[in-house]
Amino acid sequence: MEADGKQAPLLTDAAGLINDVDTFLFDVDGVIWRGGKVIEGVAETLDMLRDMGKKLLFVTNNSTRSRKMFQEKFRSLGLAISEEEVFSSSFAAAGYLQSIGFPADKKVYVVGEEGIQQELEQAGIQYLGGPEDGEKKVEMGSGKNLEIDPNVGAVVVGFDHHINYYKMTYATLCIRTNPGCIFIATNCDSVAHFTDKQEWPAGGTMVGSIRVSSETEPIVVGKPSTFMMDYLANKFKISKSKMCMVGDRLDTDILFGQAGGCKTLLVLSGVTDLKSLHSPKNTIHPDFYTNELPDLLAAKRGAAA
Amino acid sequence: MEADGKQAPLLTDAAGLINDVDTFLFDVDGVIWRGGKVIEGVAETLDMLRDMGKKLLFVTNNSTRSRKMFQEKFRSLGLAISEEEVFSSSFAAAGYLQSIGFPADKKVYVVGEEGIQQELEQAGIQYLGGPEDGEKKVEMGSGKNLEIDPNVGAVVVGFDHHINYYKMTYATLCIRTNPGCIFIATNCDSVAHFTDKQEWPAGGTMVGSIRVSSETEPIVVGKPSTFMMDYLANKFKISKSKMCMVGDRLDTDILFGQAGGCKTLLVLSGVTDLKSLHSPKNTIHPDFYTNELPDLLAAKRGAAA
Q1: Is the pLDDT of residue A305 over 60?
Q2: Which of A50, A88, B128, B134 lies in disulfide reach of B162, CB 3.0 to 4.6 Å?
Q3: What fold is seen in the domain B14-61+224-304?
Q4: Is A93 helix (H, G, I), strand (E, B) or coil?
C-alpha cells in the first residue's frame, strides 16, 4: 500500500484473507480485550479460526507478565489458550539471551516487573534487581560509591512502575563499566492503556532514560523489532508470507508485521482510530483494516449462506 | 579549528587571551572545584582577572541549586561571588518562562529539585510537583485516573534523584493533554560527577524518559543551548566575540561557547582528558586547551617578569 500512496482498504473479503493465512498473530490489548473486558465475539472468532485449522499466537509488548501469567489472565476472562501460544516481550528478552548463548555464570540486572524475572527463571538465567530494588536509594554526595556486581552481563529494561534513581544508576553503571555488558529493551512504547481512561507512560519511558545515561542504543526484542517474528517463524517452521499480524497500533503491530513480511490487519478497537489511519501524516498502511476482530466471523456467515 | 581539521593548541599566551576578552564564563564542576574541593590556585586566578577589570560569570547545568544556593556553596569553599554572577540551568528555566511572558494564572509542574522551585518562586511563577511528589504512587489498574491540574502550562524537567512513576505520569499527562503546555529541559547531560568516584545518571536521564512518553521534543535552556548565552549578552550588553567560555566538557561547555560565537578554553581538570580531546572521533575543537584554570596565572607572572 505504501508504494502508490493509496490508503489501506476496509476488509470486505474475510474468507479470502483467512484462506491465504496459516497463522494469525494477535496483539492482545485493544484487539482481544479492552479496558479489562473481552471484546464481544472474540471467543467465537478464535474458535472459528481454530476449527479452520489456523495456528493462533498472541504477541504482546507487555513485559510485566510472564507467559504463564498471561495464560491465567486469558483464563480469568473465559478464553482458553496454552502458555505456548503466548509471546510476551518478557519471554522475548529471555529468548534473546538464550539465542546468543548468554553465559551461565553471568547475571541479568532487571529494571522491570515480575514477568521478566519469571521468564529469566524459566530460562535458567540468573538475575537481580526488579521489584526487590523498588525502595532502594542512592546516597548522594562526594565520596559515595554504588557497588555493582561485576558478573552482570546484561541489563533488561521494561515497564517498571517502581522505577527509581537507584535502578537507573545501577543499570547505567553495569552498561558503562562492566566489560561487554549488553542493554536489552523489552519494548519502546511511549504510552499504554494501563487504564481505559488515560494513556500513561509505558516501557519506552524507562528505556529512554537509560538510553541517555548509558549513552548506548538498546537491543529491542519487542514489536516492531522482528526478533519475535523470526523466532516464531523458525520455531514453528511457518513461512512469514502465510502469517497475518492483527493489531491496533500502527507503529508497533503493523510495522512489526510489515518488517517481518507478513500480511497486516489493523483493528479500530484500540488506540488507532479511522481519522489517524487516514491522516496524511500517517505513513504506515496496513493491508486491510476493520472495526474489530469479530468482523472475521463474516467468513463463517458467508460459508453458511 | 574545525575547518582545517587541526587539533586545538595548548594555551601558551595566557596574557594574549585575557587581553582579547572582556568576560569570562566559567563552568563550575571540574573547573572551579573538583570532588567538593576548590582547585588550588583558583581563588588567586579569579582575583587576578577581577583586578584586570574582567567580568566573571559562572554558568552551570546543575539545576538542583538556585543561584542563592550556589552562592552559599562558593562561600562555603572560601570563594566570594555575588548571586548575580551565577547562571544555573534552574535560573535559565525561570528566565525562559519570563522571556516568553508565561501567564501569571498558569503553573509549572516540576520534575526536579529545590533549585528549580526557588528560582520559579523568585520569578513569581506558580509551581507544583518537585520534592513534594517524591513519595507519591500511581494506582495501577483498569478504571484508574490521575487527575492533573488543568492550569499547568509548562513542565520543567531537571535532575531529580527522587524521580518516580508518579512524576513521569503527571508530567506526561500535562504535556500531552493540557492545551499549549510546553516542555522545558534544564539540560540533557547523560552523566555527572555527583561523586568523584563514579559517573551517575544526570538530568538528561529524566528528560530522556519524558521525551519518550510525551512524544515531544523539549526546549533545552542549559548548555549547549544558547539561551543563557543570548540572555547574558543581552543583559550585560557584551559582544559575544569578547567572551571566553572556560569548561571541562566538549559536548556542553565548548559546544555552548562555539554555538554562541565565543572564544573557548578547555581545561583538563574535569571529565575530558587529553586522549579524548585528541581522539580522531572527537569533532569538537576548542580554541585552546590547558591543564587547569590557574594556568592563566602565567599572565601575571609574565607581567611581573
Answers
A1: no
A2: B134
A3: Rossmann fold (3.40.50)
A4: helix
What CATH number should be reported for the domain whose range is B104-220?
A: 3.40.50.1000
Whether residues B213 and A201 touch (CB distance < 8 A) is answered with yes
Instruction: Output DSSP code: residue A29.
Output: B
Could you identify the residue written with the cell 540486572?
A109
User: Strands, DSSP E only, in A134-181?
Assistant: 152-157
What spatial distance separates the first Cα and last Cα of chain B, rounded to whole Å?
32
Chain B residue with Cα closest to A199: B173
Partners of residue A134 in chain B, C-beta under 8 Å:
none
* Angstrom distance (rounded) from CA B199 to CA B194: 7
Q: What is the ipTM of this complex?
A: 0.92
pLDDT in tens, B42-77: 999 999 999 999 999 999 999 999 999 999 999 999
- Asked whether the domain spanning A104-220 has the same topology as the one spanning A14-61+224-304, the reply is yes
Burial class (CB in 10 A: 0-12, 13-18, 19+), A139: exposed
Task: Compute the distance between CA of residue B273 and CA of residue B291 in angstroms, rounded to an integer.
Answer: 9
Which among A157, A226, A217, A160 has a CA at the least distance from the CA of A192? A160
Rounded to the nearest 10°, the torsion over CA B16, B21, B26, B32 is: 40
Residue A147: what are its φ and ψ, rounded to 5°? Answer: -75, 130
Q: Write out the three cell numbers for A109.
A: 540486572
Beta-carbon separation of A208 and B204 below 8 A: no
State residue B303's pLDDT score. 58
